[in-house]
Amino acid sequence: MSNGVIITPGLAADALRQEAAGGFQTTRAERADDVARGEKRAVRVRALVAIGCMALGFLSVGIQLMRLAANGGADLRVSMSAPIATSFSRPEIVDRNGRLMAGDLVMQSLFADPSVVLDRDEVAEKLSTVLPGVDQEKIRKNLSDKAKRFVWVRRGLSTWQAQQIHELGLPALSFRKELRRAYPLGRTAGHILGSVDVDNKGLSGLELYLDERQNVDRVHGASLSARPAVRLSLDVAVQYGLEEELSEAMKRYSAKAALGLVMDVHTGEIVAAASLPGIDPHNVSQRADEARIDRLMNGTFELGSVFKMFTTAMALEGGKVHTGTEIDVSQPLRFGRYQIKDHHFSGRFLSVEDVFLKSSNVGSGILALGEGAERQRQFLEQLGLTSALETEAGFVAQPRLPERWGELETVTVAYGHGLAVAPMQFAAAAATLVNGGYRIKPTFLRKSEGKPPKRARVISPETSGAIRRLMRENVASGRGTGSRADVPGLEVGGKTGTAEIPGADGYEEKAVIASFVGAFPMQEPRYLTLVSLFEPKGVKETRGAITAGWNAAPTTARVIARVAPLLGYRVGGREE
Amino acid sequence: MRILLTLAVIATLGSAFTLYAVNYETRAIAEDVKRKVRAIEKAQHDISILKAERAHLARPERIAKYARELGLVPAKRGQFAGYSEPDPLKPQSMK
After folding, report:
1. Residue B14 lies in a domain
2. Interval A295-323: pLDDT, tens
3. Dist CA A395 CA A300 (whole Å)
4. DSSP helix/strand/coil, A274
5. Is the dihedral of CA A459, A461, A462, A463 positive or negative?
6. Which domains does chain A have, with CATH numbers?
7. What is the rounded CA–CA span in Å between residue B68 and residue A494?
8. Does the active-site annotation cover A305?
9. Does B77 contact chain A (CB < 8 Å)?
10. What's the distance, Cα to Cα, between the start and end of chain B in Å?
11. What secondary structure, in 3-state letters, does A99-122 show?
12. Cβ–Cβ contact A77 with B under 8 A
């Protein structure tokens, strides 16, 4: 047959026909069939691989799409701004009635890129036309370093200033939005609020407290704090009334400085606190001024006779005497070369009540000696006068205690010398005497109403009642030193104190701190006031006197008459 | 088979079209969200400035000056009266 080289369809059919007969043709046909089948399989595999690849490709595209849809590529931004500037966003500070005392503002800050500055002199000169007081020399110097890409020119510009600079058309200058702290009340409560630095970070006062309590957030650029406002115990109206009355008193009595405080005796909430001359929180440099220190918190002073409140309370609490007990005050107390005497009244015997009302140094000394040095130290410790005190506006200056606490020191401490405390700490202790005997902690934050805080009792309600009566007598009876502090209808009570300021050689008689610690209404005291005038002069109005009864007491009357209506008290009595 | 292919082509074209439509819509929405966030920020900044300005204008130091010019003074005795007392502010002639 054929040893066919060419397989034709005829031949193939022939082969099929001869299939049944078997033989080598049959085998050839099978082989051809196999080849065809193999080719078919290969095509299918190839197709499958191609389809698989396409599917994988589409799948990966799909997954990528989903991934992008899910996180939106948000993590691509931050890195640029990170090294340039971080600042702090701070919550607002409001007073007890929600009036704004401090808040963040978004302002424009100007920076330059020295590498693209064409003409340094042009930049400096043009800027000085818009920004008065700008240091041209400094700008030239800052812009000279071409290696730098970022130099601050001026931070915290108002929108219109920024607009003016923008209109100068200088290519190297750009703006960043930044947060700036604003204190809309200016100087009012400046000491308490404290201040912040150029990055809006707290430096002092309540601002520093906010930082320490992690109440501020690190931010890039300018995003305002979402935190709720910090509500203070202060009342802006009372604060202003107090500051104004104090500043008038400083003028009236030619005093160098003055301080004042209005405090809730039950909760320790400070409604108003001022130390004049005050500071403007915007002006950080004022903080370094010695004359402007916060005398209420950061200064310690020997406050003088106002301390007799503690001595009398200690003696009454001790139980050896009562208010009617007579004491022989005719002999001065002698300790070595020191001699302590009273010179402003005559008479041999004074009752404990009169020792308080007439403010007898000898009488107070005798009362203190009757209790002893150890008991005195312990009593003052219970009142919190010997240990460090901290408020939200910072640490109160540490009390300065006598180095040795012998009999002489017992007597001097009894009338408020030899132991120096910050007036804030003194006021907190005095509040204990009038609030029924509970220790309180001064606070600048608003306490929630209703729930009375858990308080430790320090003195008995009877002693507290006796002190209240004495304080009221001191103002109302006409026998005491505080009669000029009276405000009709308000039952003001209090104690005067005129302390000589220790100078280079001993105490100076003409330089005094005149203080009046008061409370009202005396039947059930709610508020304690403290007014201290530093180095008041004898003026016509005081008939030349520089004692507290003549200046601090009437100032207290003015303060109370001014603020009591704001605190919900009716100033009683018809005007004659 | 041909029908299937036609359907697939139509589906592809359709889905491509939808995808682009959704894409553009998403971009528009994202842009809108950005705009609104910016508007909110701007409003918040404005509010903070207005609040500060308001507090600054309403500071007691400034108000007191104007109040005094209008003849107002801090509340004092003689301006308070109980229910049983005659009104201290009522002129005498009207009694």
Report:
1. yes
2. 999 999 999 999 999 999 999 998 888 88
3. 12
4. strand
5. positive
6. 9-58 (no CATH), 87-231 (3.90.1310.10), 238-278+293-567 (3.40.710.10)
7. 31
8. yes
9. yes
10. 111
11. CEEEEEEEEEEEEECHHHCCCHHH
12. no
* Positions of E strands within A191-233: 195-196, 202-204, 217-219, 230-231
Cβ-Cβ contacts under 8 Å, B90 against chain A: none
Is 60 exceeded by the pLDDT of residue A10?
A: no
pLDDT band (50, 70, 90) for residue A558 = very high
What is the CB neighbour count within 10 angstroms for residue B8?
Answer: 10
Residues in contact with A503: Cβ distance below 8 Å, sequence separation at least 6, in sequence order: A511
Residues 540-569 of A with CB under 8 A from B: 561-562, 565-566
Alpha helices of A291-389 — where are they, by DSSP H?
308-318, 352-357, 361-371, 373-382
B58 close to A (CB below 8 A): yes
The domain in which residue B60 lies consists of 2-69
Note whether A346 and A557 are within 8 A (CB): no
Mutation pick from A90, A570, A576 vs chain B, by most beta carbons of B within 10 Å, is A570
Within B58-82, residue ranges assigned H as helices are 60-69
Structure tokens at A256: 């160098």
**Residues 6+ away with beta carbon under 8 Å from A484:** A549, A550, A553, A554, A557
Q: pLDDT band for A85, please (50, 70, 90 cuts).
A: low
Of the residues A305, A359, A364, A515, which is catalytic? A305
Chain B partners within 8 Å of A72 (Cβ): 30
Residues 90-109 of A with CB under 8 A from B: 92, 99-101, 103-106
CA distance A571 to chain B (A): 5
Q: Which of residues 5-24 of B touch A (CB under 8 A)?
A: none
What confidence tens digit (pLDDT) does each residue in A483-516 have?
Answer: 899 888 888 999 999 998 887 777 766 889 999 9
Which residues contact residue A379 at a Cβ distance below 8 angstroms, ignoring those fewer than 6 apart? A310, A313, A314, A317, A371
The per-residue pLDDT for A82 is: 42
The verdict on residue B64 lying in a domain is yes
Distance from CA of A189 to the nearest CA of B (A): 12
B60·A188 Cβ contact <8 A: yes
Residue B88 lies in a domain: no
CA distance A452 to A490: 25
Q: Chain A closest CA to B32's CA: distance in Å?
A: 15
Choice among A10-14, A134-138, A225-229, A552-556 with the minimum mean pLDDT: A10-14
| Of A105, A182, A188, Cβ closest to residue B59 | A188
What confidence score (pLDDT) does residue A75 get? 55
Number of domains in chain B: 1
Residues in chain A within 8 Å Cβ distance of B58: 99
**Pairwise pLDDT comparison (A328 vs B26), residue with the higher score:** B26
| B48 within a domain of the structure (yes/no) | yes
ipTM at complex level: 0.72
Q: For residue A252, give Cα distances in angstroms to A57, A248, A257, A554.
A: 90, 6, 12, 11
- Cβ burial of A190 (10 Å; 0-12, 13-18, 19+) is buried
**Does residue A252 carry a pLDDT above 60?**
yes
Measured between beta carbons, which residues in chain A are less than 8 angstroms from residue B26?
69
- Please report which confidence band the pLDDT of residue A26 belongs to, taking 50, 70 and 90 as the band edges: low
Residue of A nearest to B48 (CA): A105
